[in-house]
Design brief:
With about 250 residues, the protein is of the alpha/beta class. It contains eleven helices and ten strands. It binds zinc ion (3 copies). The site of one zinc ion has 7 residues, from helix 9.
Length: about 250
């Protein structure tokens, strides 16, 4: 981890105030479209996590790794300056590290973090302000639907044969769920789609959104993230080499 981010043992979490799921859910609160302008809600997760699920009023940094957080803050000081910055992440850990860096910079009026992260929020408010799916790390991609708390799917990205087989009815499911809970799109046909797979070019570990129909169309070619991954087994793909590592928000 980047040495600018203090590790947990160096961080005194008692210095950062937590805000609760309730505070995020009430009308006029942080998660509501009527939130006051001096509060900025920031998603501390990586772009591929926030792409498939987020609080709509949040700023979602287009960064691929959390280690770029300090650089993101440095580049976007005005986003935080004199604001109450409310951070959220999956379970709360990254907020602690993220808020520590913000506090050290001393530009925000106040830094608060969501107690228990999106996890706890969704337990309490499965149909609340959090829209889409929650992406969970652990070698597996766990997608938890917000539409009813018991609709939980597990996807093992290391075992995509099974995922594909299980997704044969995926288009139906997408149509059903298209009532608002899929926020992202297939990178090829732009249909609503939020199930990640890994680029099939060995050596490229990018998570990609490619729907079942486009996978079928691509067969027997590998399903890859970009042309350079289709052409070469080594070297940097254009997705990585052409994207800005740390964006400046407008
Ligand atoms: Zn598609
Ligand atoms: Zn690739
Ligand atoms: Zn690529």
């Amino acid at each position: 981890m980047d040495d600018k981010i203090p590790n947990e043992s160096h961080f005194d979490s008692s210095t950062v105030k937590a805000y609760t799921a309730e505070e995020l859910s009430n009308e006029g609160s942080i998660g509501d479209s009527t939130k006051p302008d001096d509060i900025v809600l920031v998603d501390c997760r990586n772009y591929y996590e926030s792409a498939i699920g987020h609080f709509e009023t949040s700023v979602r940094p287009n960064i691929r790794k959390f280690k770029y957080w300090p650089e993101y803050v440095d580049k976007n000081e005005d986003l935080f300056r004199n604001k109450t910055v409310a951070l959220y992440c999956t379970g709360g850990i990254r907020c602690e590290l993220g808020s520590a860096y913000l506090m050290k910079k001393g530009i925000a009026k106040e830094v608060v973090q969501l107690d228990g992260g999106i996890h706890r929020y969704m337990e309490k408010y499965p149909t609340g302000h959090f829209k889409g799916k929650l992406f969970v790390f652990d070698n597996r991609q766990t997608v938890i639907s917000t539409a009813g708390g018991d609709d939980i799917e597990h996807q093992d990205t290391a075992n995509r044969t099974n995922v594909s087989a299980a997704s044969d009815t995926g288009s139906d499911r997408n149509e059903d769920a298209a009532g608002g809970n899929i926020l992202s799109r297939c990178s090829r046909c732009q249909c609503l789609h939020d199930e990640y797979t890994v680029c099939e070019n060995e050596g490229c570990s990018l998570l990609i959104l490619v729907c079942e129909k486009c996978r079928t169309l691509a067969a027997p070619s590998k399903v890859v993230c970009c042309d350079s991954c289709a052409e070469s087994e080594h070297g940097r793909c254009t997705c990585v080499s052409q994207r800005q590592r740390v964006p400046t928000e407008v």
